[in-house]
């Protein structure tokens, strides 16, 4: 199916659907959390799409930045998204708040590379909450935007904390997460 975008594999028809689900040449979906944007396109078109259609996303330069999530006490499911640009690549930082069951909210923080799985393997990221003589750290390899935020949350492959922990580190309802990207 993705021969026109570069896939050169020839497979038996029974293996085709499985491969198409993971093919690196399949179109990229808009990496923004939430289901409102249905855009799809090539990897090269992802950043122009984000800059044009999602102008509210801030981009910070550098390998060590602070991702500030404001108003973490907003009710319901909320997403905070920011871009980090370093090492010639763009990384999408996402903090998502979900209510898993009545009255129990959880936060999920993750870094995605605007790139392929293979490119993502060249990097590591660290998320760190600091404050009140406490430190909470998560270190991992970024996921490709082909995986998306949902897969990371489903597999618990991200920094997860509840509202009580968020309040330990928050300042007037704002949560600062130190984000460090490094090469491997």
UniProtKB/TrEMBL annotation:
Transmembrane segments: none annotated. Pfam families: Sina_TRAF, Sina_ZnF. It catalyses: S-ubiquitinyl-[E2 ubiquitin-conjugating enzyme]-L-cysteine + [acceptor protein]-L-lysine = [E2 ubiquitin-conjugating enzyme]-L-cysteine + N(6)-ubiquitinyl-[acceptor protein]-L-lysine. Keywords: Ligase, Metal-binding, Transferase, Ubl conjugation pathway, Zinc, Zinc-finger. One of its GO terms (molecular function) is ubiquitin conjugating enzyme binding. InterPro entries: 7-in-absentia-prot_TRAF-dom (IPR018121), SINA-like_animal (IPR004162), TRAF-like (IPR008974), Znf_SIAH (IPR013010). Belongs to the SINA (Seven in absentia) family. This is E3 ubiquitin-protein ligase.
């Amino acid at each position: 199916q993705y021969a026109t975008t570069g896939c050169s594999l020839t497979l038996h028809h029974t293996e085709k659907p499985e491969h198409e689900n993971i093919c690196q040449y399949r179109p990229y979906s808009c990496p923004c959390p939430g289901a409102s944007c249905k855009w799809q396109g090539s990897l090269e078109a992802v950043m122009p799409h984000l800059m044009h259609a999602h102008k509210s996303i801030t981009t910070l330069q550098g390998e060590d930045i602070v991702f500030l999530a404001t108003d973490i006490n907003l009710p319901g499911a909320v997403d905070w998204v920011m871009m980090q640009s370093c090492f010639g690549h763009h990384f999408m930082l996402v903090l998502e708040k979900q209510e898993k069951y009545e009255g129990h909210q959880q936060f999920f923080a993750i870094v995605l590379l605007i790139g392929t799985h293979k490119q993502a393997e060249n990097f590591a990221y660290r998320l760190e909450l600091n404050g009140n003589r406490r430190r909470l750290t998560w270190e991992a390899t970024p996921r490709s935007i082909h995986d998306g935020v949902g897969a990371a949350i489903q597999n618990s492959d991200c920094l997860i904390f509840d509202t009580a922990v968020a309040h330990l580190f928050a300042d007037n309802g704002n949560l600062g997460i130190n984000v460090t990207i490094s090469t491997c």
